[in-house]
Amino acid sequence: MSVPATPQGAAAPPGQPRKAATAAWIGSALEYYDFFIYGSAAALIFPAVFFDESDPATATLLSLATFGVAYAARPVGALVLGHFGDKLGRKKIMVFTLMLMGLSTFLIGCLPTRGQVGTLAPVLLVLCRVLQGISAAGEQASANSMTLEHAPPGRRGFFTSFTLSGTQGGQLLATLVFIPVAALPEEQLLSWGWRVPFWLSVGVAVVGYVIRRKLDETPAFAQQAAEEGVVKLPLVVLMREHWADVLRVIAGALIASVSTIFTVWALAYATSDAVGMSRTAMLWVGALANVVALAAIPLWATLSDRIGRRPVFLIGAAGSAVTMFLYLWAVSTGSYPLTFLTGVLCFGVVYSAANGVWPAFYGEMFTTRVRLSGVAIGTQIGFAAAGFAVTFAAQIAGPGGDDWSAVALFTAALCVPPVIAALSARETNRVPTEVLGEHAARGTVQPAKVTV
Q: Which DSSP letter does residue 4 get?
């Protein structure tokens, strides 16, 4: 089969795609280590440290709400960082977001407790969490744009998946750090032990800066800036030419609810008096699921390079709705073998299909000049809803916090919009990088024929 001539644009220097993917993986792992240690602390520690212990149910609800606060801040961060990312380049945003995350996380570890300063403590906690949310808003979109625009033809799915496997690596690292912390005696845990994982973010910032400052800007962005200039108001162009794709990304990003329910609500539920499973064992469930996800994500992404983004994403979205029922049911039984098995199946295998393919799937919907803005704004609005899914789940679970079937139904309902988004989207795995997203203003772009 022949390959029709298409504009090729500037080629990435040899080895640069691999370097970009490595920087995205390591940077995302370090960035999301910071973000996810907060989730573990919100479920296990913060109700007793920052909120009123006399009402444990309300304290847990408020603590989980602070987890969602960062997701509420993310759309605002996406507007700002997306704008500058499409004007100044991907590299500068990647460095900035990592430094901001490291600083805000370190500050959380230094905060006074409720017993020391009263209600000022949760206020300061929320402020630091907002800074984390702003940082996370630009992280995945900038790293995703960087890897997609460096990737060789026919392998965009594989290379962009490094951003999400890095995110899973960060979640795994956060879980492994919290396992020995959670095993500390109660007095030590609540006094100083919980602070240690947050203080380690100083190293996160330093390592991330060294890695990312040496990365080259993408050829696609450099060429567009040289030939056409950058867009003065990316948001205006985005809403004029890509509004339908932004809506698809928002709907698709709701699939992240599976992650937040699994990571935070299920952890709080399993270790509550209603079930009584140990904190250490449940942290190991998350760790094992993330190990499996590290292998599954690039495999699903590689499959999407062959058969398309849409079918792989649909497997993950529809399959997560089913397997989440199995996982929460297993937790409700208190059976450790069942919980481990279904946790790995749900989060490690099935959810990884959608999680691994969305960086390419969403990024390919937009042109280079608004790609970072489109992915950042679309995902962060959807992720904001996913972040507060934990708070809603805590309310849906009832006064005793043990109505797991209602939470499973709620999670399944949140998987419906991603399915609809995927069914309505175009297949883009064979469209040349240089003409991605041009359908919006110039008509439908036909996929390139690729020699197999």
A: -
Confidence at residue 2, expressed as pLDDT on a 0 to 100 scale: 34
Residue 101's contacts (CB-CB under 8 Å, 6 or more residues apart) are 31, 34, 35, 131, 132, 135, 136, 139, 201, 204, 205
pLDDT one-digit tens code per residue, 253-284: 999 999 989 988 998 899 888 898 988 889 89
The CA distance from 411 to 387, in Å, is 12
117 and 21 in one domain?
yes
* Predicted confidence (pLDDT) per residue in 436-452, tens digit: 877 654 544 444 433 32
Residue 223 falls inside a structural domain: no
Q: Is residue 128 part of a domain?
A: yes
Identify the CA nearest to 159 among candidates 310, 291, 366, 19: 19
**How far lies 303's CA from each of 38, 128, 309, 312, 427, in Å?**
33, 39, 8, 8, 14
72 and 136 co-located in one domain: yes
> Count of CB atoms within 10 A of residue 402's CB?
16
Alpha helix ranges (H) inside 50-119: 56-88, 90-109, 114-117
Angle at 354 (CA atoms; ends 349, 356), nearest 5 degrees: 80
Same domain, 255 and 161: no
**Domain extent for 176:** 17-217
In a domain, 280, yes or no: yes
Please report, for the domain that includes residue 254, its CATH number: 1.20.1250.20
Asked whether residue 240 falls in the same domain as residue 322, the answer is yes
